[in-house]
Amino acid sequence: MHTWIEFSSDSAYAFAHQFIVDWDVIETRERELLAERLAGWQESYPDVTMRRVVTRDRPVRCLLDHAADAQLLVVGSRGHGGLPGMLLGSISQALIYHAPCPLLAVRPATTR
User: Model pTM?
Assistant: First the structure.
């Protein structure tokens, strides 16, 4: 799943910006980005069903909507190294309290 949310503000610029942006072009780019990041995984794990979702929405809301009938919700967590890296991000924090199923927050593998 890949979601993004546009800049939001009460300014006149933000109001005008929503009419200038070509969301179809941005969505196409976002779909390509997801395809690049998932390249090779379906071939490596052919028995795993993969459904690609690309949407312009708040990440937590989108994840909760799609997790309603899930057995497990898996999300990435970047971490920032040191003590701050041990903390979960805002999306993982929100999902801890609201996920309708078990949640697994995964950190990236470290290279040594």
Answer: 0.68
